[in-house]
Amino acid sequence: MRALPPFHGGKLAWTSNSSMQMRKLLKYQNGFVNQKTFYCNAASSATAIPSLDKVDFLKLQNGSDIRGVAVSGVEGEPVSLTEPVTEAIAAGFAAWLLDKKKVDASRKLRVSIGHDSRISAQKLQDAVSRGIASAGLDVVQYGLASTPAMFNSTLTEDEAILCPADGAIMITASHLPYNRNGFKFFTSDGGLGKNDIKDILERAASIYSNFLAKGYSVKASESVKKVDYMAVYTSDLVKAVRKAAGNIEKPLEGFHIVVDAGNGAGGFFAAKVLEPLGAITSGSQFLEPDGMFPNHIPNPEDKAAMKAITQAVLDNKANLGIIFDTDVDRSAAVDSTGRELNRNRLIALMSAIVLEEHPGTTIVTDSVTSDGLTSFIEKKLGGKHHRFKRGYKNVIDEVIRLNSIGEESHLAIETSGHGALKENHWLDDGAYLMVKLLNKLASARASGKGVGSKVLTDLVEGLEEPAIAVELRLKINQNHPDLKGRSFREYGEAVLQHLGNSIASNPKLQKATVNYEGVRVSGFGGWFLLRLSLHDPVLPLNIEAPSHEDAVKLGLEVSAAVKEFQALDTSALDKFVQP
């Protein structure tokens, strides 16, 4: 990892970067004098800064994202994403970007900023803008936007709308509660990885330490501009559907499609994508952005959310229902009969569409997909199923790796609703996934091969689905003496190692020979997977089986193997296996 630029008397030492922009960043560092006011948006009034607390920046890392608490009021959850912390993170990203791009003094870098509907969005957008602008970079604010649009802004080439952006920041915490927020970062190479995020946070910690030492006063830059980029992004989605239907202006005319945005950022899809294509969108719900999320969690995996969109489809006798998460990088659908097209069904549907276009290609998924899905992809569709790890960035990185070594793959998708296609620059885009479904509806009608969502439902015919599918979360008590000084991750790995050894001597069970995460085992007509959470002291246990009795048998095998680990809370598993 690149070394952090050290402080020397309040200055940062930099090399191989734009001298003009570096001078601005140095001025930003040196300008933090012992004043307790700062200026927002070039306003003449000053706002008092609260006392600055010490912050462990690395604790804000959530894999390839940054997340924290941005709004007070929830007991036990103190605010960690304050404005000074946010400004330091933005300045850290600016420094990282300058280091990465290494542009000369003839061009200023520009960063696009967007946010979802959270109540802390505007406050954090202002703080991010100050951090970026004060480092000498141009800031382009998009306002309410989607995460996929932010990445897309680094690819669009149109100087009239200040594109491409050299970097992009999306202010979001996905489906987490209203008091949370966070940041996702992009360049034209895609979303930043874990090491990049750690680098940015370490830079931010250095910048923030100067805040603590000297205080600061920052004036807003004139380099902040505003652009309606969502108009460009939605126009591209509309063009994609028209093209798939043979350049028909309104290929969805007569289709009744309802949208549930969960009061997140996805409300645009009804009026800006579906209606220009001729679709009827009456009955769409929760399209208005509301960061308190008063109706349901914007999450395609949430049962209440899926029940809400299913009911909307049935009540309005719609052909199709579409639901998004808060920042529109995940999605799911419901057919006209109320059948949910999410999780394994959505993966099966997208696999059918992609394998029709690219026969024999590899489909990359996360680790918790079903055995029935593997059979469907490989035996019914003639493709190859590559089951990898949880985490959308893990899945996308793996599909890129496979292509780089000559294994053709066009789809990376998680059961959570994250999905990325090669044709879309491996952009993790829930709206584009739904466009692929719309393409199928439009092209089928244009060619006389079918009308309505039955076209989609027929594509997943033959998918074997378990009678029982559960996920149980086994928490690790980090304060339990059984850890014996080990981290929760080390303890969790010990649990998995012991489970794997126990299974090896059990003739009733068969351990998966190819597995990239945790311990996956088949038996009693089903399977289980015990893995360590990517970020939390938790071992999620997924069980799928043809009956509750068989699922209990699998659960009992796990229970017997892990019972000696006293710091592991197995209460959820104990309750499940009780007669």
UniProtKB/TrEMBL annotation:
GO cellular component terms given for this protein: chloroplast stroma
Record key words, sorted: Carbohydrate metabolism, Glucose metabolism, Isomerase, Magnesium, Metal-binding, Phosphoprotein
Catalytic activity as recorded in UniProt: O-phospho-L-seryl-[protein] + alpha-D-glucose 1-phosphate = alpha-D-glucose 1,6-bisphosphate + L-seryl-[protein]; alpha-D-glucose 1-phosphate = alpha-D-glucose 6-phosphate; alpha-D-glucose 1,6-bisphosphate + L-seryl-[protein] = O-phospho-L-seryl-[protein] + alpha-D-glucose 6-phosphate
Xref: InterPro entries: A-D-PHexomutase_a/b/a-I, A-D-PHexomutase_a/b/a-I/II/III, A-D-PHexomutase_a/b/a-II, A-D-PHexomutase_a/b/a-III, A-D-PHexomutase_C_sf, Alpha-D-phosphohexomutase_SF, Phosphoglucosamine_mutase
Keyword Coiled coil belongs to the record: no
GO biological process: glucose metabolic process
Keyword Chloroplast: no
Entry cofactors: Mg(2+)
Known EC number: 5.4.2.2
Domain Alpha-D-phosphohexomutase alpha/beta/alpha: 63-205, 236-338, 343-444
GO molecular function list: metal ion binding; phosphoglucomutase activity; phosphomannomutase activity
Family stated for the protein in its record: Belongs to the phosphohexose mutase family.
The protein's assembly and partners: Monomer.
PANTHER family per record: PHOSPHOGLUCOMUTASE (ALPHA-D-GLUCOSE-1,6-BISPHOSPHATE-DEPENDENT) (PTHR42946:SF1), PHOSPHOHEXOSE MUTASE (PTHR42946)
Name of the featured protein: phosphoglucomutase (alpha-D-glucose-1,6-bisphosphate-dependent)
Organism whose genome encodes this protein: Gossypium tomentosum (Hawaiian cotton)
